[in-house]
Write a structure and sequence with these properties.
Radius of gyration: 30 Å
Number of strands: 17
Shape: elongated
Helix content: 25-40%
Strand content: 15-25%
Number of helices: 6
Length: 418
């Protein structure tokens, strides 16, 4: 009897111990669950901080291109202010841990100009975000952070980097010759191989021959497209051998052609007045077709340089812009285009072939179809070579490729901080 009573007491004691063990285990599980929730929350905050840093760095690097710094339009000091301000502004459009970033949470720049032709900017984002379950151990908040570095990749600065492939290139052709420096009457005489060395657009070493602001440099320099080179040649391209039937579409929209240094392209045969004028009209008025009289001036976006014809520039939306109200300052425009620069040899009548040696960024302002005149007026915003020919073709993976074209004719990309 005594043994049975002792056995029952022991069982009751063990049942009591089990309750304590279960309770302690539940507390431990709750703590581990809370820690997992907090760690997931902090990981999410870190990811958001990285996303904000990436976007800010790319925005800062974009200023190297948009400000015309890469073509000598403004100084390092001027672009430093623009790049830093753009990076901070874009970073503040993001949230980390549900909180909007303040200017004190973002450190941008100053840019690194030590790598010739490839300016860099590094942005660091840091934010203190609240915790949930870690508060029981006195940890009410944790600071998460991330950094990112971006560059404007200039292919002429290195012979070993990835191949620069430009897409969304318009089918207009520019010979490697500065119209205003070499030709006092560009409407009647097309520039060719006779222009003096000082009047080329791209020098033999791949640098911009006349950097800086017009009239002492090419930034802001007026240029005319669709000039008569020789009979049947009007400095236009026939992308993919499709003929003039698709010229209007190629002008208005992006083509599928990806062009790199050394690419050989066929020229278009004939003046193609209708497709050219209609394509430009559709391009600069966003397809509204308002290109008669005052409609042309009010429908197209416009560009103006700040100060006394000095970069950076501002773009104002026209009445034809479907995305912004007329008069709104905008950062992108259909009138911002990239065209290829070819080696400059004198073209032959009929279909000829040209070799691409670089790119030019233009802002197309208007066209003039009066009698036999069909000039397309534009402003030069940038000129660059396309690097070393003979590299891997566009779209291959052997040596890697980077793409530019359109509004950003020099690629902007995230890189590892050196």
């Amino acid at each position: 009897m005594r043994a049975e009573r002792n056995s029952g007491a022991t069982a009751r004691a063990e049942r009591g111990s089990t309750l304590y063990i279960v309770a302690a285990s539940l507390v431990a599980l709750l703590l581990l669950g809370g820690l997992a929730i907090d760690l997931g929350w902090l990981y999410l905050g870190r990811t958001e901080a990285q996303r904000a840093a990436d976007a800010a760095a790319l925005a800062g690097a974009q200023q190297f291109v948009e400000s015309t710094f890469t073509t000598g339009g403004i100084s390092q000091a001027a672009v430093t202010t623009l790049a830093d301000n753009a990076a901070v502004s874009v970073a503040q459009q993001n949230k980390v841990g549900g909180q909007v970033l303040a200017s004190s949470d973002v450190t941008a720049g100053p840019p690194d100009f030590s790598r010739a032709g490839n300016p860099l900017i590094t942005v660091t984002v840091s934010k203190s975000i609240p915790t949930f379950f870690m508060r029981v151990v006195g940890k009410n908040s944790v600071t998460v952070g991330a950094s990112a570095t971006a560059e404007a990749y200039d292919p002429r600065s290195t012979g070993t980097g990835p191949t620069f492939c430009a897409n969304c290139v318009k089918p207009f052709l520019v010979p490697n010759c500065d119209q205003n420096a070499a030709d006092t009457s560009p409407k009647n005489t097309a520039p060719g191989t006779t222009c003096p060395g000082s009047a080329v657009l791209i020098a033999s070493d791949g640098s911009t021959a006349n950097p800086g602001v017009y009239p002492n440099g090419v930034v802001g320099e007026p240029i005319l497209l669709h000039l008569n080179a020789v009979p049947s040649q009007w400095y236009e391209l026939d992308f993919g051998g499709k003929g003039g039937a698709t010229l209007r579409t190629d002008i208005e929209q992006c083509t599928t052609e990806a062009i790199s240094c050394g690419t050989v392209l066929p020229t278009d045969d004939g003046k193609k007045v209708g497709p050219t004028d209609q394509g430009i009209c559709d391009l600069i008025t966003y397809g509204t077709g308002k290109c008669n009289g005052a409609n042309k001036a009010t429908s197209a976006d416009t560009i103006a340089f700040n100060g006394a014809n000095s970069p950076p520039y501002t773009i104002t939306a026209g009445a034809g812009n479907p995305y912004f109200s007329a008069g709104t300052q905008i950062g992108q425009s259909a009138s911002l285009v990239t065209v290829p620069v070819y080696d400059g040899h004198a073209l032959n009548p009929g279909v000829d072939s040209v070799t691409v040696v670089g790119y030019m960024q233009l802002f197309v302002e208007s066209f003039d179809h009066t009698g036999k005149t069909d000039d397309i007026s534009a402003l030069i915003l940038g000129v660059t070579s396309c690097g070393v020919s003979g590299g891997p073709g566009c779209g291959t993976t052997g040596g890697g490729t980077v793409t530019g074209g359109g509004a950003s004719f020099i690629p902007v990309r995230l890189v590892q901080k050196p």
